Amino acid sequence: MSAATETQSSFNEKLDPITFEVLRNALSGVVDEMAVMLEKVAFSTVVSEGRDFSGAICTPTGELVCQGDQDLPFLGGTIPFRVKAVVDTVGDDVSEGDLFLHNDPYMGGSHAQDVSMVAPVFWEGRLFAWIQTAAHWPDLGGSMPGSYDSEATSSFEEALMIPPVHLVRKGVLQEDILRLILRNLRVPDVVRGDIRAMQEACKIGVERLEQLLEKYGSQTLDAEVEALMDFADRHLRSHFSKIPDGTYSWSDAIDEDPASDSDAELPVHLSVTIKGDKALYDFTGTSPQANGPVNIPLSGCYAAALCTTKAVFPDVPFNEGMMRAIDFVIPESSVVSASFPAPVSGGACAAAEKVVSCVHGCLIQVVPERAMACPANLINICFGGFDPRPQHEENYVMYCWLAGGWGARPGARDNFTSLVPLSSGTKIQPAEFLERAYPVLIEGYGLLQDSEGAGRHRGGFGLSFPIRVTHGESTLSGLSDRGKRLPWGYDGGLEPLGNGMVFQPGTPEEESLGVMCSGFRLQAGEGIDYWQGGGGGWGDPLDRPAEWVLEDVTNELISVERAEQVYGVVIDVGDPEALEFEVNQSRSEELRELKKNERQ
Amino acid sequence: MNWRVGTDTGGTFTDLIAISDTGEVRVAKVPSTPPDFEQGVVNALREIDLPVDAGDVLYHGTTVTTNALLTRSGVRTALLSTRGFRDVLELRHGNRADVFDVMWDQPAPLIPRANRLEVDERLNYLGEVLKELDESAIRDLARILRKRKIEAVGVSLIHSYTNPGHEERIAEILREELPDVYTCISTEIMPQPPEFERTSTVAANAYVGPVLHAYMRKLEDALREISHSGQVRIMHSGGGMMSAAAAINVPIRTAMSGPAAGAVAAAAIGAAAGRENLVSFDVGGTSADLTMVMGGKPHLSMEYEIEWGMPVGFPSVDVAAIGAGGGSIAWIDDGGAPRSGPQSAGSVPGPACYDRGGEDPTNTDANLLLGRLSPEAFLMDVDPELSRKAVTEKIAEPLGLELHEAAAGIIRISNENMSNAIRRLTVERGLDPREFSLMAFGGAGALHAVELARGLSMREVIVPPTPGATSALGLLFVDYVHDVAHAYIADQSKMDTAAIEEIFTGLETEALEALQEEGYGGDQAEIVRSIDLRYAGQVRAVTVPLEPGPIDEATMEAAIRDFHTLYEREFKYTMEGTVIESRTLRVSCTARTQKPELEEIAETGEAEDALVTRRPVYFNEADGFTDTAIYDRPKLMPGARFEGPAIVEQYDTTTVIPPGAKVEVDSFGNLIIEPGVEA
Questions:
Q1: pTM of the model
Q2: CB of B439 closer than 8 Å to CB of B479
Q3: What is the pLDDT of residues B638-652, one digit of tens each?
Q4: How much is the ipTM here?
Q5: Candidates A430, A445, A555; nearest CB to B194
Q6: Closest CA to A156 of A100, A101, A106, A83
Q7: Which of A2, A5, A16, A22 should one mutate to test binding to chain B, selecting the residue with the greatest count of B CBs within 10 A?
């Protein structure tokens, strides 16, 4: 049976295929409108410039119906768990005009900085749906500015936790709750503005959904929700059914546990078993949870696995239906299912990225035309302190993140540099805004030469972002991974450059900070460079067409030396000012043959 | 008798309209002639066969710039950036158009990395020099550019909007060293943060500068060959006219030339008909361009993107362009859901019914099967049997639908895409579509408009008398407008009124000089100052017009008050007590031009006089085919009234009136359609 006829059979009498498509667009339009509102009126650069947020519509029981087209995938992936936590916690205490806040990672969150606002939508006297928006707040208190503490050993040091609470009850703002929260934060005014923006986003989401209910009726929308989930379920199954039955495994690892004396790697292991049109994702073999904040909560593991599956099969709508096509086995209290109060603030840059890596690692074996080699791993840093500049004179928290190389794809030539897959809805914040908002100087941000995972198809290049503190003392915390264990290449493709931070590069005080630091103090005039590496390569670099290597050399992405050593392509350099670069065909052929022979 | 001539060159057709001072109208539609678009213009002029006068001016809307950008056919261009920032153009914001899809690729940057060069210099956000410009290094760069046969250079330095010194010096040196190279600096083009948007604008401007220059020269020559004066005024994206010389200086301002003309036309036709708030809906073969007219003026956006990742920082008529037109292909995705567009069959192979090898069903095929388009309505022979085959095989059978259900479904999905675009233009800005009239033009706008308006509860649909030539008509209603802007970033409490006044004075001098170059005296100029304000920390600013007169405390206080009012109108709330900061100072300088008057038609008539035939047409409201009146548009005179179901046919446009809709022809010959409520 073809996918198409299979689909048709599921549309019931209430819903023809055309109405289905119309409403599918209309529902995602609701969430997109929320995003536009949030982006426009938010106060933190994290949300307004960085777009570190996500929105969604969920069923009364918290099942994900749809999310926004441009929203942060990882955050979006945790949304159904967040809404379910609200449902479980508040029970019947839900009325029209209520708004709930929630950031508890152990109740469906990601890390505490990602705060959800959840609004019920009532129709014809019953709870019809939940609207939710989640955004990364620049600070939630705790020991370090930005609430990233690589030395934390429990959630108590990390951040203020907000279990599901009423922020607004029947339209009335609960001032005491708001006061309590803001009193715990380093930048209350910024967060107050963001809360307001989230309220407006929820409001518009509720209004738009009510308009759809008015127009189509709740029966039709109920049918649509059911059909959307069925659609995702069956669509994903149709993809799985084309994969030969079998078990496909992949292992990766977190560099180490920052709060342990051991420098042993923490493995993350995934076996994907395909049987007919179903898949089993089994994380057995994954390391027990770490003492330090490299873990993710259970919801984070589901989110990362589902987002990556969706990245490989992007035509499957991202909703709860996907979960029906996949069974999960996730060992308890592991680095991908941390239990309270194991710290999780850095998990998005550590354990979650390994889940992404493992899903691609399993799927690239069976759908190479749709998957990629390992992408770069996110690096997050926070600077915080008091900004003594005359027009500021206030506390600040500057939360920054970077783009890096995506992994090479067997199915397409090369890959480029952008935000990592889990964060790809976000944006790098402009230097001209950061320098105005915070006492820093951005000394440039550019692609790192020779940082790609080499291959017949190469991965994207890494990116460096040197920052100097210009005024006052600043405290730096950084949380990442891939300082030691590098992103993998596939089928002969090589590993790229990993991540790193270095204090005062090129000076006598130069000091490597690795990929994690906490409470590192910088004085005015001192700076760091930090970088996010490249993506893994695919295929043998000695098989890469020499013209492609030449193009990368001409664009100063690959050095002449690397072209020769890694790709076996000898470039004759004339006048670089006139871009006189040429492939020396005969020497390249000889060199490539020599290099291949040396391997045997 | 004097004639005003407007011509709008699109990818498929070149439209031309001429109006004499006695109100006579001549229209021509000829195929465009890429890449030598000037030939199409000349052909269209020949077709209307006007006496040519040495003093004639041609008002022109062009896609030359857009085309060069979208097809990457500009010149060899270099970009100069502050050291450390050469990759800003390529990285954009590090974001992606599709957040999930592993197989998505970002569009190539206009300038490859090898030709993105770096300059040693640095300013901070206050405009203070942290590192002096190394002038000898600029001469070294000039040597490199010469060796690489670079034809255009864009310069965008970090924080240059606060201090133009370094960029200006670089321009001086480059113009001295490389006099034949087209050089532009961000300070002259777009002195505003942040770095990516500014750099993108400058890069795009440099990339198309020599292209537009060459086109203007060819056009002027071709016009002179047919004894035309060769004087051309170009429509810019902001909805005003500029001289050829000004367009060559800032070619990127012509990127939305065509759609801007459509918006101006909608405003002019709306004004005559007494409508101030309109959504203009221009649908051609491959895409639909939607723009807004508010308070009688085209709505401008300050942050327009030509394609994903290519913003240009000029006020542009806010165009929502979507891949939905007559040629949009209906298809079924891998999951079995029906879709429409954005792929288009274009004019080659075209819809299945064209019998040019197209096998995919398009909107045109669906409309033909539903009886909405008659085979005679085409400017060519068509074969409905091929439409039937395409819709049956590609849509109806896979979905288990009856043929006409499937055809009606194709139109519904296409309508939903179009109505999402209208929603983005209206509701996303806090505007209620119910307060707007939908003005439909282009070849295919009127086929979909009434159903769209009904779905969005819009007040009415207006179909102007010559829908196919409406954009060209707009060119005749354009004033000369010069907009200039400069960043000024300060907290509410730190605003320096003297400094603001000084910047405004400088901007006005610049605008007035440009005006004089166009041959207008300063006394003809209408100057509006405005300031972009926002809550400190927010991204989006609100443009607040300022009271006339020198800037003082009172002006700024009024501006802050107005900000709250405008903010509340857009976002439905305010945050009193939050610090407000300024972002940008703007001056808009307008010289009114003489415009033709839209003449009222003295004659009146009854609908019956225009009723030419009846045929069965499919409507969802009628659950299928229903006997439908077919009217001949040229015979429909003011005063005629009729109700749907009906079809109105004319030279290049068909208007669909579903059951329940009511039509009246107004005194200008517009169809004014009350859409009725959705069934």
A1: 0.88
A2: no
A3: 999 999 999 999 987
A4: 0.93
A5: A430
A6: A106
A7: A22
